[in-house]
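[retry 2/3] serine-type D-Ala-D-Ala carboxypeptidase: previous attempt timed out, resubmitting with same input.
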Amino acid sequence: MKKVVLLFFVCILAFASFGFAPAAANTENAELVSGCKAAYLCEWRSGSAVYSKDETKHLPIASMCKIMTLVLCFDEIEKGNLSAEEDISVSETASGMGGSQVFLESGGVYPAGELIKSICIASANDSCVAMAERIAGSEALFVKKMNAMAKELGMDNTVFVNCTGLPDAGQYSCAKDVAIMLSDLLRHEEYFRYSKIWMDEMHHKGGRVTEMANTNKLIRSYQGCDSGKTGYTSEAGFCLAASALRGNLRVVSVVIGAADSKTRFENTKSLFDYAFANYTNKVVLEQKVLTDAVCPVKGGKQKEISVIPERASYIFCSKDDTDNIFYDISIDAVKAPVQKGDTVGRITVYKNNVEADSLAVLANEDAAKSSYLDSLRDAAQNWTL
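[retry 2/3] serine-type D-Ala-D-Ala carboxypeptidase: success.
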């Protein structure tokens, strides 16, 4: 069974010449950033590019490398291989890291969650190495995992050499890849427990305390900014990857090689402002029972059951575009028994005749298999004298 539903979203067309392609965005909106080597702006859910400047240029990214370190940490937690409460023993190598740090004690024991928090807030190199050694056995083996994940995510212009972002001629990335990396990190709800903290403390054995202040100042000064990672070395300049959420629209911004700290924050705010002023996520489907489709059940006590999308569907588009958005519902032929939550079909969403989203249709109720007596009863009810 197939059903097609048309939804027309019509807005006043004011900027019809603007497109989603990075090149077009770069040409028309070159004034959005200044004083930096590269920049990138995209919508988080779809990855649609809104703005770019030299987005694939190979550049050092300093501590933004730690985004991948965090990705692997939260992946391990998600898999059940690590918990925030697990005690991590700090090696002499980890405690001796230079640069930004929280001065972990060699041989000291700290909860994994506290180490992860110090990476998110204070960009702690010592905590990065401690977590790398816990997850992979050594920083070198952890870096192999970082590069494998980069390949898996499609980060084609990135090579990691260490887990901290400390200067190394062989380590580089690009604005687009950093956006991909941060977007993946944002999948982890646990990450936001730490990313939004403005100030905190790291407690050491013997009562010593290290004060921590978030290096991403926008979480305090920009409405909706709840995550991100700064970076700075003399080679990389001032860098910032950040994300902001307003309503159902989340955007990801990357600035690399800004001349000073103020410039990276101002450029990021400019990119965020542009996205929220000009773009939206239109709701195509809510996650509720569909009124325009049911699922026939063969051999069931019920002849049909209600269905529901696996999630809501949004389409990212310009507020000023004229869009033809529609979805196609395909329901499978199913046999009883059916359990609530079983996949029974698929919804494909199109924007201007191009596939924009695809999601499963789920059974919203159980359908038990009919018995022999049920079959006799049905036959009797349908018997005509």
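[retry 2/3] serine-type D-Ala-D-Ala carboxypeptidase: Residues 33-278 form a domain with the Beta-lactamase fold (CATH 3.40.710.10).
[retry 2/3] clearing retry counter.
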